[in-house]
Amino acid sequence: MLGLTVGGSKGHGAAAVSLLTIISSQTSIMGDLRQLLSQGEYAPFTSAPVFESKFVQVNRRGETMNIHKQPTCVTIGICATSPSSPMPYGMLLAHTVPVSPQESVTNFQKFSERSSQLEQLALSRFLPLKFVELSVHSTDNHQLMLKLVNGRSYYLELCAPPDQQHRLFQHWLQLISLLKPQKNPSNTNINIRCKDSGTNHEKDPSPNNSSENVSLWQIDIKPSS
Amino acid sequence: MGERRRSGSPYLVGVGKSCLLLQFTDKRFQPVHDLTIGVEFGARMITIDGKQIKLQIWDTAGQESFRSITRSYYRGAAGALLVYDITRRDTFNHLTTWLEDARQHSNSNMVIMLIGNKSDLESRREVKKEEGEAFAREHGLIFMETSAKTASNVEEAFINTAKEIYEKIQEGVFDINNEANGIKIGPQHAATNATLAGNQGGQQAGGGCC
């Protein structure tokens, strides 16, 4: 259970937990997405504060989705409009792409020493948070559900070293609480309980939600019929 | 015709911005495509005047409900492709509004190319090529008709826009030290931001996703 203090009619603005608080709790080493943005290639996001994590895409049952025999990995960042803004505004999605021969000698290369020098991170989507609903899919498996305004749902499992996984997932839970619209206008200490949807096996009949095999960033993957 | 309804939204038909981007970056056409939400990014390396240039393309949402979001992305762009659908007169009629929006919220030097997409659907044409040319001439735009499906003129549209931007850099019109202009100089090449803007089209029954 997470405690969230909401102040007056300001709603989000007075939340005790802000995006900046969550970001400051992240390791001081700049993440891959933040490094990419700081290069200035994506001008509006160059100095935006970002809370980022790597996820692997899973289906509703929590099974890894392998596309071209590779797990679908995605880096997700929640960003604010500016360093002075404490409230999250948008979601950035990035994935690794092969480095073209022309680019391999330039400064657009991914800086991470750990990763293959044949790959670099590239931004694939920006989603304003008002078009996104982030919720917990499975607490035990550190899985989130991302639902877009067009009805598509994606299931994501946090990718992190085992010793950091739980702590990092707690930050995502804080973020989810922060993004929830506040219904209570008075100064109240609201406890938001994380609803765990578990690993539901039911099939949704709606074609909009049949995204079992839809990749979050590879738009050539079609939903299973 | 090989055309199908947009998955998830049977009555929404786009002008083909996402399909143009996919054809340019991946050299393929995807008949079924989700409605663009927010921004989708694409990039491709091209060569102009012997120099490597990375085109960074922002594919924006065309639907009216996303309009305010789209506005904020013009500012950092060096160029924009304003897209309409030659088979739907309403998308052509809305160009003035989109152009005003782009000009109002962008760098005054931004290169704008007008694109009449779906040129392969000649039998369903509602906007004559001459009308597109006249609109472009009147508003000082470059003009081209394209087909994301057959790839006709897609390369040329993006590359000609990039060439126009490059010429402006050479002429000193763009301040290359100011990244707000959508240009970033790297050790080997420049990265140039271009934005895809255009009418999504309203509640329109019938086939065609791009």
From TrEMBL, chain A:
<feature type="compositionally biased region" description="Polar residues">
    <location>
        <begin position="206"/>
        <end position="215"/>
    </location>
</feature>
<dbReference type="Pfam" id="PF12480">
    <property type="entry name" value="GARIL_Rab2_bd"/>
</dbReference>
<comment type="similarity">
    <text>Belongs to the GARIN family.</text>
</comment>
<dbReference type="GO" id="GO:0005634">
    <property type="term" value="C:nucleus"/>
</dbReference>
<feature type="compositionally biased region" description="Basic and acidic residues">
    <location>
        <begin position="195"/>
        <end position="205"/>
    </location>
</feature>
<dbReference type="InterPro" id="IPR022168">
    <property type="entry name" value="GARIL-like_Rab2B-bd"/>
</dbReference>
<feature type="region of interest" description="Disordered">
    <location>
        <begin position="195"/>
        <end position="215"/>
    </location>
</feature>
<protein>
    <recommendedName>
        <fullName>Golgi associated RAB2 interactor protein-like Rab2B-binding domain-containing protein</fullName>
    </recommendedName>
</protein>
<feature type="domain" description="Golgi associated RAB2 interactor protein-like Rab2B-binding">
    <location>
        <begin position="121"/>
        <end position="182"/>
    </location>
</feature>
UniProtKB/TrEMBL annotation, chain B:
<dbReference type="GO" id="GO:0005789">
    <property type="term" value="C:endoplasmic reticulum membrane"/>
</dbReference>
<dbReference type="InterPro" id="IPR050209">
    <property type="entry name" value="Rab_GTPases_membrane_traffic"/>
</dbReference>
<dbReference type="InterPro" id="IPR005225">
    <property type="entry name" value="Small_GTP-bd"/>
</dbReference>
<dbReference type="GO" id="GO:0007030">
    <property type="term" value="P:Golgi organization"/>
</dbReference>
<keyword id="KW-0547">Nucleotide-binding</keyword>
<dbReference type="GO" id="GO:0005525">
    <property type="term" value="F:GTP binding"/>
</dbReference>
<dbReference type="InterPro" id="IPR027417">
    <property type="entry name" value="P-loop_NTPase"/>
</dbReference>
<keyword id="KW-0813">Transport</keyword>
<dbReference type="GO" id="GO:0019003">
    <property type="term" value="F:GDP binding"/>
</dbReference>
<keyword id="KW-0333">Golgi apparatus</keyword>
<dbReference type="GO" id="GO:0061909">
    <property type="term" value="P:autophagosome-lysosome fusion"/>
</dbReference>
<dbReference type="GO" id="GO:0001669">
    <property type="term" value="C:acrosomal vesicle"/>
</dbReference>
<keyword id="KW-0449">Lipoprotein</keyword>
<keyword id="KW-0931">ER-Golgi transport</keyword>
<dbReference type="GO" id="GO:0000139">
    <property type="term" value="C:Golgi membrane"/>
</dbReference>
<dbReference type="GO" id="GO:0015031">
    <property type="term" value="P:protein transport"/>
</dbReference>
<dbReference type="InterPro" id="IPR001806">
    <property type="entry name" value="Small_GTPase"/>
</dbReference>
<keyword id="KW-0653">Protein transport</keyword>
<keyword id="KW-0636">Prenylation</keyword>
<keyword id="KW-0342">GTP-binding</keyword>
<dbReference type="Pfam" id="PF00071">
    <property type="entry name" value="Ras"/>
</dbReference>
<dbReference type="GO" id="GO:0000421">
    <property type="term" value="C:autophagosome membrane"/>
</dbReference>
